[in-house]
Specification:
about 55 residues; about 15% strand; flat; 2 helices; 2 strands; single chain
Amino acid sequence: MILTTGRDAPNAAVVHHKVPHKGDEQLFWDISNLEAVSKEWHDSEGQREDRSCIRS
């Protein structure tokens, strides 16, 4: 899998939901909705994306 920054993260311990699941269990567990990312990216950019989707 590729990080948004363009760096490979095949052994990433963190996954990001491409489409926010908003509590939908089917979307939460949908493998095609997941991408491997670094913890650093997830804790910064990923969370910023999630928060912006919640407000919409």
